[in-house]
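Case study.
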Amino acid sequence: MVAPERDAIAAIATPPGKGGVGIVRISGAELGPILSAMLHRPPRPRCAEFRRFLDADGGTIDSGIALYFPAPRSFTGENVLELHGHGGPVILDLLLRRALQLGCRLARPGEFSERAYLNGKLDLAQAEAIADLIDSSTTEAARAAQRSLQGEFSAHIHRLLERLIQLRTHVEAAIDFSDEDIDWLEDTAIGCGLAESLDDLQAIERKAHQGALLREGLTAVIAGRPNAGKSSLLNALSGRDSAIVTEIPGTTRDILRESLQVGGLPLHVIDTAGLRDSEDPIEREGIRRAHEALDNADCILLVIDARHPEASDELLTGLPEAIPIIRIFNKIDLTGDQASLVTSQDTTTVHLSAQTGEGIDLLRQELARRAGYERGTEGLFSARRRHLDAIQRAHAALVNARLYLGTKTAELMAEELHAAQKALGEITGEFTNEDLLSRIFASFCIGK
Ligand code: GDP
Ligand code: ZN
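After joint prediction, the assembly is written out as follows.
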C-alpha cells in the first residue's frame, strides 16, 4: 500500500455557481494553525458551531457553520474541517485562498476519497462507488452505487477471498506432505470448495455485469431525415417521469450526445446530425468524441417517416458497418399500420408512433434485450469494467485450478488459487499499484 501524504489539502466541495450554501473542505494531519487563524479556536469535535471565518487581518470573510472532525473519526481519517458559508463563487474563493495562504495545498480531484482509502476508511470498490453515486444517471444506478458504498459488493468479494485463502492453505499443506499416501488433491473438501467458489464467483459476475450496465448503459446512434421524428422519439423513449438529461456528468457539455433513461438503464444517444465539420474547437472536440463513441455504439436507430418509407440508407454512409441497425418506421398513427417488432437475420424493424406512444414499449424492450439488462435483479451493486475484468481473471484461474484436481500437482493448483485471490484483491484494493490509483481518483470531482 502507498504511504499516505500528510500535507493539508483544501478544496471547494460544492459545485461551481451560486447556491444557498457553499462548503470548503480541509483535511490534513495538522490543522492547528488553520483552526486558530481562521476560527480563533477549534470548534468542539463533531458539533456544528456558528462562527466567523477570518481573513489575515482578523476581518470577516464570511460567517457560517464550522464543523471539525478530529482524526481518526472523519471521512478521510485525518483531521477534517468543513466551513459551510454562503454559496457564492467569490466568497468561496476567498475562503479557499485563505486556507492556501495558511499552508494548505489545493486538493487534486478525488484526493479526499483517496486519503479515505489510504487511511483504511473505505476500500477501493467503495471509493469508486462514491464517484458512481455522484455520476449515476438513473435511480436504479444510484441505488446500486449506494449498495456498493455501503460495502455489499466488497463483502461478497471478502467472503470469496476468505474461502480461497482457506482452500489455498489446504492445498499448500498438501505440498508439504506430498510423500504421504493420501492423495490430497483427491480430497473432496478441495473439490467442493472449488465448486462452491466458482458458483459464488458466477453469481457475483452476473450481478457485477448488471451493475456495470447500469453505470455505463447502452449507446445508440440516431439517424434519420429532418422531421422523421428523431427528437420526438427520444422524448417518447425517455418516458413521462424521467426528463431528458442533456449533460453527461463529469464531462464538458457535449451537444451531440444526449442521455436518457429507458427502463432504468442509461441510454446515450449520439445525434448524427451534429456530425458535420466545424471550425469551432469545442464543437470539434465534441465531434471527435461522438465519432469515438460511434465506433463502440451498440446499435443504430434509423428513424423513417412511415409515410415515406423510401430507402434512407444513404443516411448510414460513414457509420461503422458492424453496428446493428434498428429501422424505426415512425408515425404509424398517420398510416394506420400496427405497432410491431420484427427481427430477421440482420435487421430489426419496429413500427411505432412517437406521438401516441404506440409501439414505444416494443422498442424499449428491444433495447434492454440487446443490452442484456434484466430489470429488477435484486440487490444490484454498481460495478465497473475494471471489476468485471478482475472477476473474469479470477474465474479463469479457478477453472484452471480445477484441472489439477486428482493430479499430484498441488503447487500448480496453489498458484492458480493465488492468482484468483490477487485478481479479486484488486477490486477492493488489497493488491494495487499507484498507477491504477491515480487513474481511478483522477476521474473524481474536485473536493470529493
Ligand atoms: P426530427 O427533425 O427528426 O427530430 O423530428 P421531430 O421529432 O422534430 O418531429 C418532426 C415533426 O413530426 C413534428 O411536428 C412532430 O410533432 C411530428 N411527429 C413526430 N413523430 C410523430 C408521430 O409519431 N406521429 C405524428 N402524427 N407526428 C409525429
Ligand atoms: Zn429534431
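Observations recorded in class. The mean pLDDT is 86. The chain has three domains: 9-123, 132-214+384-428, 219-371. We will return to this complex in the next lecture.
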